[in-house]
Amino acid sequence: MVKRAALATKVEALYAALARTTRDRTTPEVQGDVTLRVVMLGDPAGIQAALTDLPPGEVVVAVTDVGRVGICSAHPAVNAGRLLPDALTVRGSKGGGRPDLAHGSTPDVPAFTQGVPETLTTTT
User: Fold this and answer.
1) pLDDT at 70
2) In DSSP terms, which residues pair with 67 in a beta bridge?
3) What is the topology classification, in CATH, of domain 2-123?
4) Could you give the CA distance from residue 68 to residue 107 in angstroms, rounded to a whole number?
5) In degrees to the nearest 10, what's the CA dihedral of 16, 55, 85, 109?
6) What is the pLDDT of residues 21-41, one digit of tens each?
7) Using alpha carbons only, what angle is made at residue 42 by residues 36 and 46, rounded to the nearest 5 degrees?
8) Residue 88, pLDDT score
9) Cα 111–Cα 103–Cα 60 angle in degrees, nearest 5
10) What is the crossing angle of helices 109-123 and 80-89, to 10°?
11) Predicted confidence (pLDDT) at residue 112 exceeds the cutoff of 70
12) Is-contact 61 41, C-beta < 8 A?
């Protein structure tokens, strides 16, 4: 049991490292003073890691191929708790959270990822 727990911890650390690396290598889209990164992840286990330790002014949207979504905002004018529901509602999904961090899900990942920059433009 101890070995299994140790292995599980190592796997979680690897997912986190992969998610952060994927985030950092994703080409950002700059809208005024907001830097937006839409990060596609293969596993929901990496969402939280992709949404931590953002530089000031950055907004990260982490999406998995199964439709789990998270948004973190390190920009004072971008409220993740409003941005995510606005982006999801247009696509018939739900989600929400705090001004700095929000979670949700969508059945239409491609439409959501294409629509986030538009939604950001209209909410800032």
Assistant:
1) 96
2) none
3) Diaminopimelate Epimerase; Chain A, domain 1 (3.10.310)
4) 9
5) -50
6) 999 999 999 999 999 999 999
7) 70
8) 86
9) 70
10) 130
11) yes
12) no
For CA atoms 93, 31, 80, 103, give the dihedral sign: positive
Question: Rounded CA gap, 87 and 122, in Å?
Answer: 10
Please write the tens of the pLDDT for every residue from 5-18.
Answer: 999 999 999 999 99
**Nearest 5°: CA angle at 8, between 6 and 9?**
65
Domain boundaries, the chain: 2-123
Beta pairing partners, 72: 60, 101
List, in sequence order, every beta strand (DSSP E) within 1-124.
Answer: 29-31, 34-41, 58-64, 68-73, 94-97, 101-105
**pLDDT of residue 62 exceeding 70:** yes
Give the per-residue pLDDT at 89.
79
The Cα 87–Cα 123 span in angstroms is 10
pTM, rounded to two decimals: 0.89
- DSSP code at position 108: -
Beta strands at 101-105 and 94-97: parallel, antiparallel or unpaired: antiparallel
Share above pLDDT 90 across residues of the chain, in percent, rounded to a whole number = 70
